[in-house]
Amino acid sequence: MAKKKTIPQYTSVERKGIQYYRTRILDADGKQVSLYATTCEELYEKQLAARRQVQEILFHRQHPTVAEYCEKWLVMQSAKVSAATLKGYASNMRNYVIKPMGDMYMEEVTADDIRLALVPLSKKSEGLYNKVNMLIKCVFYSAERSQLLEDNPCAGISGKGGKPAQKKEALSDQQVVVLLETIKGLPPYLFVMIGLYAGLRREEALALQWDCVFLDVPTPYISVRRAWRAEHNRPVVSTVLKTKAARRDIPIPKCLADCLREAKATSTSDYVIADSEGQPLSYSQFKRVWQYIVVRSTKERTYYKYVNGQSIKYTVKPTLGTSQKNNPRIVYTMDFEVTPHQLRHTYITNLLYAGVDPKTVQYLAGHENSKTTMDIYAKVKYNKPEELFDVVNQALHPSVTADNAAV
Question: Domain 173-294 belongs to what architecture?
Answer without folding.
Answer: Orthogonal Bundle (1.10)
